[in-house]
Amino acid sequence: MVNKNIVAIGGGGFGRSLGKLKIEKYITSLIKKDRPKICFIATASGDNDLYKLNFYRAFSKLNCITSHLDFFSRTENLEKKILSQDIIFVGGGNTKSMLAVWNEWGLNDILKIGYEKGIVMSGVSAGAICWFDKGITDSFSDKLEVIDCLGIVKGIACPHYDEEKEREPFVNEIIKSQRITSCICIEGNCALHIKNDFNYETINFGENKNCLKIFKKNDKLIRKIL
């Protein structure tokens, strides 16, 4: 049986500070190899060079074979690149723009094939919500919005839940108005590890950080720690 893993990070990690690389170590520990191959996809930040540099600094320390995938310069053979990896890590930024670029290049389907083959899919912010049916994004300058994502795992996800003050009231409002029925909310310095589609585990790499499922029951909002 192929083990399938997604590690969705609500905020933090090497993009902010190398630090102790707690969540990065956790991700690499899922691959039982001395030197796992990991590819960074920084589409959401426009293939930002500093972001890529921090990726190389972080995962080189963890004895990984590192590479990245660009879309804003000449782009490699996507299927060959993705399906040869042990781990994919997707960076944060503009989720809507990222997904549009991926769709144009056909990366969506290749990532789904990779997931089914057992490649660990991971990422932060945009790279966390992209794996779900839908995600709550700040891609728009004036509002939060719910957008369609890859649909590899079921549900609607919201990153930065405790880090950005507009997140919690927005989630509460769209559940109360029945626009959505529930939302998986991931706090900063925390990640949700989804194993084989349905098994959830919270990975706290900060202080008392949680992943929550918010839903309405008997006209009351329920906050369930995952």
UniProtKB/TrEMBL annotation:
<keyword id="KW-0720">Serine protease</keyword>
<dbReference type="GO" id="GO:0008236">
    <property type="term" value="F:serine-type peptidase activity"/>
</dbReference>
<protein>
    <submittedName>
        <fullName>Peptidase E</fullName>
    </submittedName>
</protein>
<dbReference type="Pfam" id="PF03575">
    <property type="entry name" value="Peptidase_S51"/>
</dbReference>
<dbReference type="InterPro" id="IPR005320">
    <property type="entry name" value="Peptidase_S51"/>
</dbReference>
<comment type="similarity">
    <text>Belongs to the peptidase S51 family.</text>
</comment>
<dbReference type="GO" id="GO:0006508">
    <property type="term" value="P:proteolysis"/>
</dbReference>
<keyword id="KW-0645">Protease</keyword>
<keyword id="KW-0378">Hydrolase</keyword>
<dbReference type="InterPro" id="IPR029062">
    <property type="entry name" value="Class_I_gatase-like"/>
</dbReference>
